[in-house]
Structures are given as structure tokens and as C-alpha cells.
Design goal:
Length: 305
């Protein structure tokens, strides 16, 4: 909650609500959910127009096992803030109170990565032992090592483009987070950068690409059908497309408690076939560490069918 306290509560100018919310945070940390619910309910009564209060009250109800009450306030939040920067639709689905969203809300993704950007690479490489960019480069460069234009979908700070940069004439990146984009810009590895939603960008891309990369993109975007079809139209005839997915327990797509999507092999194969893509390689791998355990997934390499 601390991030959202800073982002949403500092601008209200209501010192009483701010004080009560600070106390609520401490009560939640101590595990006294009943007292936290009572206190935050009073804040909601004082400021019913503040959508974030409804979300946080819902989340305390959820943590206290009161799912029906949580669903009421998550739903109220969504009627007030349909962009859903706090991820209420995710919570509703995980409680069994709503359908699985096809993608995480763009506003939620933007807020998440704006927050993480300053320490993003350090956390990935040092703490999570992240090696997806290098694994993707192995898949691609083992087949071809000269490209005209690369497109990095969900480029973040540019970490995934770095292993490819010496093998491409031009590199282009797109990301929702302006903070991530600025860090990538400072590294001077991209010729063009775009802050935009990927689905909209792919409807009218400025160039054709002979290499498209997407490291961990689909753990946040989820549904592949429309993205695959759109990016195929932006691929040159000899282009390659490499991406990673987190492994699902079954054949389909699921959304986990970690707020990440996982994808089954059968689902990926169907989406690729329907989009006119041919899978050249599906490489099982550990994507990163998840606590003490590896987060398993796949690196896929595709071409036009």
C-alpha cells in the first residue's frame, strides 16, 4: 500500500483522512484487519468521491477473507475509475468474482513500471537472476546474425535489446511507461522510442521489421491473438519474432496470484497458427527466480508461415 499512499493520498489536502489512512496502514501491517476496516470505512464516508479509498477498503476486506464485501467495493472503485490503475479487475477475478481480463489494465501496467523503473534492472539481474534477453539472443543469432530493423515490444529500459544491438542497423522500442522510456533514451541504444499502447501502435507501425522481440511482454498483456495478427503485418517476409512466456499448468491461459499471465503450449501454438506464424523453436527454460524456486517458461522463435 505504501506506493499508492504516496501517489493518491498526498494530494487530497484532508489531513484527517491522511492521518486515518496512515493509521490504517499500520493496522494492516500488524494484522488487525477488523480495526483497519472500521477506520477506513469512516474515511470512505467522509470522502466517498475518492476512488482509491474504495479500492483499499476492498483489499483489506479481501485480506480478511470477506470476499463479498471486497467485491462490492472493488466494483464501486471500477465504476469511479474504469481505467483501473490499481488493478481491481485482477483482484475480482482472483477471488472468483469476475472474468479473467484479457490483459492487465494499461493504466495499472504504466503505474507499476513507473514505480519500478529506477531499480528495475538491478532487481531483475541481481535478485531475480533474469537471463531472458540472452536466451532470446541465443535462439535468434544461432539462425541469423544480421538484421536491418529491430522492434522491441515492451522495451522497458532497453535491457532486452542490448544483446542484439551489434547485429541490427536500427533499433526501435515501445513501452507504456514514460519513466522506463526516459531511462532507455539515456542509454542511447535505440534509434526511435515510442510511449504508447502496443496494440494501438501495431495497427499502424511506422516501419517494417525483420526482427521483433518481446521479453516477458505476455505475462502482462495476456491474450496473444490480436497482437500476433497485428505484428505479423509489420514483419518483413524473412522476419523473425522471438518472445518469452511463463509456463501454465494446463493448455490455456491463466492469471496467477502474482498478477502475471501464464500460457500453455497448445494456446501459443493455436494463436501462432491462426495469425499465420510458424513456430521454429520452443525452448523450455527458467525465466527468473520466484522466491527460492525458478519461474519456468519458454522462449519461442517464430517466422511467417
Amino acid at each position: 500500500m505504501n506506493f499508492f499512499k504516496k501517489k493518491f493520498f498526498s494530494k487530497w489536502g484532508n489531513h484527517s483522512i491522511q492521518k486515518h489512512f496512515d493509521t490504517t496502514l499500520r493496522l494492516v501491517e500488524w494484522g488487525d484487519f477488523e480495526a483497519a476496516i472500521k477506520l477506513l470505512s469512516g474515511c470512505v464516508e467522509q470522502a466517498p468521491h475518492v476512488a482509491a479509498l474504495h479500492f483499499h477498503l476492498a483489499d483489506i476486506y479481501r485480506r480478511n477473507g470477506q470476499q463479498n464485501e471486497a467485491a462490492v467495493f472493488f466494483t464501486k472503485y471500477l465504476t469511479m475509475e474504469p481505467e483501473d490503475a490499481l488493478g481491481a479487475a485482477i483482484k475480482l477475478h482472483l477471488m472468483g468474482k469476475g472474468e479473467m481480463p484479457g490483459t492487465l489494465p494499461p493504466a495499472f501496467i504504466k503505474s507499476l513500471f513507473d514505480q519500478f523503473a529506477p531499480h528495475f534492472e538491478e532487481n531483475l539481474i541481481t535478485r531475480l537472476r533474469y537471463c531472458v534477453p540472452e536466451l532470446m539472443a541465443e535462439c535468434v543469432l544461432g539462425r541469423k546474425n544480421k538484421f536491418h530493423r529491430l522492434l522491441d515490444l515492451g522495451c522497458g529500459t532497453g535491457l532486452s535489446t542490448e544483446p542484439f544491438r551489434a547485429y541490427v542497423d536500427a533499433a526501435e522500442g515501445i513501452d507504456l511507461s514514460p519513466v522506463m522510456i526516459e531511462i532507455a533514451r539515456e542509454k542511447k541504444i535505440f534509434d526511435e522510442l515510442h510511449q504508447a499502447e502496443i496494440a494501438r501502435f501495431l495497427q499502424n507501425p511506422p516501419h517494417q521489421y525483420d526482427l521483433i522481440i518481446a521479453a516477458d511482454l505476455f505475462i502482462y498483456l495476456g491474450a496473444m491473438e490480436n497482437i500476433f495478427k497485428a505484428l505479423r503485418d509489420g514483419m518483413t517476409p524473412d522476419a523473425l519474432f522471438v518472445f518469452s512466456v511463463q509456463k501454465a499448468a494446463g493448455d490455456g491461459m491463466t492469471l496467477g496470484e502474482d498478477h502475471r499471465y501464464s500460457h500453455g503450449v497448445a494456446y501459443v501454438e493455436r494463436c501462432a497458427q491462426d495469425a499465420g506464424l510458424r513456430i521454429l523453436e520452443c525452448r523450455p527454460t527458467a525465466l527468473r527466480m520466484d522466491g527460492e524456486q525458478p519461474a519456468n517458461g519458454y522462449i519461442y522463435l517464430c517466422a511467417k508461415a
